[in-house]
Amino acid sequence: MKYTDIEITAESGLELLTNDEIARLSEHSQGGDHELFKKCVLAVLNSTQITDELDLYEEQLKYFDVEVLQLNKGVKLKLKNAPSSALVEGEMIQGLKEQVFSVLRDIVFLKQELESNSRIDFNTSNGCTNAIFHILRNAKALKPGIDPNIVVCWGGHAIPEFEYQYTKEVGYRLGLRGLDIITGCGIGAMKGPMKGALVGHSKQRKSNGRYIGITEPGIIAAESPNPIVNELIIMPDIEKRLETFVRLGHSFVVFPGGVGTAEEILYILGILLHPENKNSPFPLIFTGPKESSPYFERIDRFIGDTLGTEAQQKYKIIIDDPVAVAHAVQEGVYAVREYRKSTHDAFHFNWQLKIQWDFQEAFDPTHKNMSELNLNTNQPLHSLAANLRKAFSGIVAGNIKEKGISEVTKHGPYHINGDRNIMDQLDALLEAFVSQGRMKLNAADYVPCYRVLKPNKIEEHMPV
């Protein structure tokens, strides 16, 4: 791979800053924040590389650097040893340039904004929701006065080609109906719906299509933003990322995936199972091609055996029918619109949805925290869903996040334990993910970062 030095001028609203803000921005981009800033910028520039291996970026990081230059007319970034694949004729690709400045906005500028705002409090439930609103408003992602039309698409990055093509077809059908797309911004089932919607929007001459990518610092290097994303937003952690999806979206489509997709499913089901959300319309559709039918049968069985029929009633499964998916989404969006009107809730941000602190507090997947998760039936269903979500979140960290990989390398696999029935179902689901190659892109060399412990079995002690 070839590298080059380049300077780029500000985008994403950072072209309108005071000299004092620029000076503080330059200061915050150094020190402890600098390494994270570099990693996220490099991940954006490597969006053409289809990999979830961190080694690629770690080698490049040795030579890559980025510096914030102070100008009276705005901000300029000086990039050293940037991948030449991000440039055309010596100029950075415009979409990548916008994404780079989104990184500067959310990693550096937003941090100093939040630190100086005494009303922002990440240590309370209401504080988290207010902070998420602040971040989205700062990113200009909130569009008041527009009818609901945002579809959240979840699914895996490590999926076979036939599933990817199906996600494109569904996205195309959504785009023909003028619906915008939010995904986790990576490849696979995150890129496909955006690519399909782009074609649908083009056919309908919709020039203002929104392709919103929501990520977080721990995952961006492993799932670099795909080039279709025209609104990149980096949330502080996975919990804030997930809340952003449910506050911003109006309908939800889940494609086949792995543990990350299972985490998203359990997150949303846990919220919908809370009694205060019982009457809130929340369109949730699981879909894939006919070859993927066994995947959803396994997911549906896991949900039924752990959370029961009440949880199964919260979603609809549609197999091999993109048009039916688009119709269901459109009907769901209309129901959301009528409900928001009747309750005087905003179209652009779901304020009324009850999200408990257990779904908002950042979960640190240490070996101790993973082994102490309450995965027993002696708790409300929404609390069990919250803890199952954390178990899957830890596995995601152990698979692709730098900190999680380091934990597993030092101490061995995470130990997960709980009720025998839940552990049996969890073990079967994870085994299915492994056998189907859904854990990582390099599935052939996958070594599990976890062990599911079952009662009545003697296991050796795990250091914490």
Can you walk through the features of this model?
The chain is α/β, with parallel strands linked by helices. The chain has three domains: 114 residues, MoCo carrier protein-like (MCP/YpsA-like), CATH 3.30.1850.10; 214 residues, 3-Layer(aba) Sandwich (Rossmann fold); 96 residues, no CATH class. 47% of the residues lie in helices and 14% in strands. The protein contains 17 helices and 14 strands. It has a seven-stranded parallel beta sheet, sandwiched between helices. Strands 1-3-2 form a three-stranded antiparallel beta sheet, covered by helices on one side. It has a two-stranded antiparallel ribbon with strand order 4-5. The longest helix has 23 residues. The two termini are 40 Å apart.
Summarize the structure.
By secondary structure, the chain is an alpha/beta fold.
